[in-house]
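user: Kindly work through both lines:
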Amino acid sequence: MNTSLDNTLINGASTLGISLDSVISQQMLDYLSLMVKWNKTHNLTAITDLTQMVMLHLLDSLSVLPYLTGQRIIDIGTGAGLPGMVLAMADPSRTYYLLDSAQKRTSFLNHVCHKLSLKNVVVINSRAEKYQSDIKFDVIISRAFSSLQLMVEYTSHLVDNEGYFLAMKGIYPQDEIDAVKDKVNLSRVIACDVPGVEAQRHLVLLQKNSV
């Protein structure tokens, strides 16, 4: 990886209020290298330009970090590890559970954990609605669910009573918010300005209704 990518990542993270040292930055760029290598046979991402990957994968994932709470975070439908794998590298004090139903993707995630010696990542090969856990999670995060309604429906059994759903969205999803207003409490919607990303980005924070 080159200095230009390193600077783009470190400076972009700084704009988001996140300090990355050179070791973590290099770890994230090594992760992209592994993604590019596996992508040739496993179709992990449609984005192949490394500069675009830094902005649309790494910085977009990092934009969530300031809004996380608790110690146990589960990334539902994580795909190639976005945002969970990136957050785990930047935030070693928490444990990140990365769940995906596709074996090829969870194999990639386990490979990344091994190659980069990540100790705070647990990889789970399962569908969200079928996954049963002995622990409840402080935050359920997703970048890939098609709707807030499905996210809440499929993962409510996994979130702690005081926990949050955090959905990464593009444009302000008013219709999706309206569809779940009787099931969860809307905590806030945050407009995110991700460096290098021109499209709208919003984080929707929902809290589980008390029973």
Remarks:
- Helices lie at 3-15, 22-42, 50-62, 84-90, 103-115, 148-155, 174-179.
- The CA atoms of residues 33 and 197 lie 21 Å apart.
- The chain has a mean pLDDT of 94.
